[in-house]
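Reopening this ticket.

The earlier resolution said the output was attached, but the attachment link was broken on my side. Pasting everything inline this time so it's all in one place.
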Amino acid sequence: MAWADFGFTPSTGLSDTTSFPTTPADETAARSQFMAVLNQIKTFLNLTVKETSTNLAAHLAETVHVGAIDIASGDTSGPTTTSTSYVDLTDMSVTLTTKGGDLLVFFSGIFKNSTSGQTVFIVPLIDSEAVTSPSQMGMTEPGTNSMVPMSLIHRFTGVAAGSHTVKIQWLVSDGTAAAEGKQRQLIVLEVKAPC
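Inline output:
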């Protein structure tokens, strides 16, 4: 079996406002949008990555090596921030010991702001060094306390072997931001080109 690259359906993922309206009709619709994307990732991981890992020796010549992996999930329900400078998002931190290579960061969560028209931003960090554009993501509150799914994918390249901490931080332009319930997850995995 050859490696199959992951792709969203539709190909632009949550950016496709026809499939994923900017303002979902209600909480159920917001959750459905978010879960549609997560289920695509889950299916890919279960069908492609899992199957590939069972036959890893045959794939080393044609695909990447997956090294350290760690996952953080929301344990604290509904954390909030009023900070206009980046602060740690509760529970969204992992520490891995790597062999040297690249780190892929996948983050998703549902957010809201108490003030209409204000923005919630998220950004990944590695060892306390923030990433700016293009991996800084923001969502502008379409109403008051409307739940909006946000996701972020970033690749840290050339990460040296050793212990590294990856975090998600957030800020608001104004108002009070809240992460919905415990619905947020951070996945970090190390990848390296074949030897």
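Reporter confirms the inline version is readable. Residues 28 and 34 are 10 Å apart (CA to CA). Helices lie at 27-54, 56-59.
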